[in-house]
Write a structure and sequence with these properties.
The protein is of the alpha+beta class. It is built from 2 helices and 8 strands. Helix content is 29%, strand content 38%.
Length: 160
């Protein structure tokens, strides 16, 4: 027997390369199926309109230049959200109708919407609510007498 034929690595390299391409494509397909579809959703037109109103509200807030300070008043298990709004010069803003949407990132079942009532000049407070300790995301929306959004702000809130 003559061993004049040498080993040729090209056929094995091509097969391994094709298997690698198929494996990577399969992994990408698996990842794509695990994540929710963000672009394909029901009522996409209404959601886009709501998003446009959020962008307009953010522009109004930036144009007004108002500042919001919030605090959390805790008594036993109950909490109250207290909010104060001032303009650039430090003048208190009063006469608004406010609301706060609280989102719990770890548990959407705990999300809630609360109204903020003016209790003093430029001081708005919520009714007592039970908030579980931890991180929350809160969105403040304030409207004027004509129901136009004059202040819109999203910020984090840590409940001790």
């Amino acid at each position: 027997m003559d061993r004049s034929r040498k080993f040729n690595p090209w056929p094995i390299g091509i097969i391994i390369g094709l298997c690698l391409v198929v494996g990577v494509n399969g992994y990408i397909f698996f990842l794509a199926q695990q994540n929710p579809y963000e672009l394909v959703t029901k009522n996409y037109y209404q959601k886009a309109l709501r998003y446009e109103s959020v962008i307009q509200a953010q522009e109004v807030t930036q144009r007004n230049g108002w500042k919001l300070e919030h605090s959390l008043i805790r008594k036993n298990e109950a909490s109250r959200l207290s909010v104060s709004i001032t303009d650039l010069g430090g003048k208190k803003i009063n006469g608004l109708n406010g609301s706060a949407s609280l989102f719990r990132p770890s548990n959407p079942n705990l999300d809630l919407q609360i109204d903020l009532v003016e209790v003093d000049s430029s001081l708005y407070q919520s009714a007592s609510v039970n908030l579980i300790p931890g991180p929350w995301k809160v969105t403040f929306v304030f409207r004027d007498a004509e129901n136009q959004i004059v202040f819109y702000k999203k910020m984090p809130l840590i409940v001790p």
